[in-house]
Design goal:
The chain is α/β, with parallel strands linked by helices and 324 residues long. The chain contains 9 helices and 14 strands. Helix content is 31%, strand content 20%. It comes from Heyndrickxia ginsengihumi.
């Protein structure tokens, strides 16, 4: 099992805070107030680890574990020595601290589970154990993982991996995965990567900032939705920032979006929502881009869409009653 291939466009030091374009495209800032910016929601980033002392992430890491042979197998050293996991974590939850970048859910918590080594490769057993750990993990205040973000994949359908993903979903954890970067820019061809091709996961394809399907994004019948995945700015190794492209970069946009939606919708319903209900709330906030369903699934995630519809209905009702 390996990282979904991705492209490093640029690496640079940065001090002045920016809101990356993808964060605005999915309308995350418009629901920050009502969602408490994801506070209290734990997202397990199952990846290459996370740079725990990155200034944008230091306050967002609630814990972690190393399942790889890196660092002589020290389970307590889950530092990122690749860069990918740090980039993913930043898109999900980089803090609003007036420096660097801000994430989709800037007050969500990250559980950093290192299942891929410095070369971006990992044994299936490492990944399976990482998912099991996420299911069973409890935080200092009895927090539970609500979202798993996995920007990794391979060509093999491994039953043990599929089974542990089913266990995670049964435990009301939304499992968000990258579709894969084997695409050829054609909707009539099918590309399959696992775990992205499992029905139980939320599979994310990539669009660019002009909302066009990225040529590299897999097309198949399991794509659930798309998010920005081209030239995405986020946190990187050595307390720097990088611009990367891939469905790996689209996935954390959705993982962060779910963190916001959990707070937003559970406040509205006044109760805990199970995973199918969270998925339903997510899909309610997608808009079709006019492509094949094999490319975009339900469409682009747009977090304030349901609120916009509600406001339109309220205004229509007001105008109707005003005329009576």
């Amino acid at each position: 099992m390996k990282l979904i291939p991705y492209k490093v466009e640029e690496v640079a030091a940065q001090s002045q805070q920016q809101t990356p374009e993808g964060i605005n495209i999915i309308q995350a800032p418009k629901v920050w107030d009502d969602s408490n910016r994801g506070k209290g929601v734990v997202v397990a980033v199952i990846d290459t680890g996370v740079q725990t002392k990155h200034p944008d992430l230091a306050g967002r890491i609630i814990g972690g574990r190393n399942f790889t042979s890196d660092y002589n197998g020290d389970v307590n050293n889950y530092e990122d020595n690749n860069g990918h996991g740090t980039h993913v974590a930043g898109t999900i939850a980089a803090a609003a601290n007036n420096i660097g970048v801000v994430g989709v859910a800037p007050e969500a918590s990250i559980l950093a589970l290192k299942v891929l080594d410095k070369n971006g490769s990992g044994q299936y057993d490492w990944i399976i154990k990482g998912i099991q750990y996420a299911i069973n993990w409890r935080g200092p205040n009895n927090e539970k993982v609500r979202v798993i973000s996995m920007s990794l994949g391979g060509p093999e359908d491994v039953p043990e991996l599929h089974n542990v993903i089913k266990q995670a979903v049964a435990a009301d954890i939304a499992v968000v995965v990258a579709a894969g970067n084997s695409g050829d820019g054609r909707a009539d061809t099918i590309e399959k990567d696992y775990p992205g091709n499992y029905n139980e996961v939320i599979t994310v394809g990539a669009v660019d900032n002009q909302l066009k399907i990225a040529d590299f994004s897999d097309s198949n019948f399991e794509i659930d939705l798309v998010a920005p995945g081209v030239q995405v700015l986020s946190t990187y190794l050595n307390s720097q920032y990088a611009v990367l492209s891939g469905t790996s970069m689209a996935t954390p946009h959705v993982s962060g979006a779910i963190a916001l939606l959990i707070n937003l919708t559970e406040k509205q319903f006044g109760r805990h929502l199970i995973e199918p209900e969270i998925y339903s709330q997510l899909i309610k906030r997608t808009v079709t881009l006019g492509n094949s369903k094999k490319e975009e699934g339900n469409g682009l995630v747009m977090l304030d869409l349901a609120e916009k519809v509600r406001d339109i209905i309220s205004m229509t009702n007001f105008e109707y009653h005003a005329k009576q």
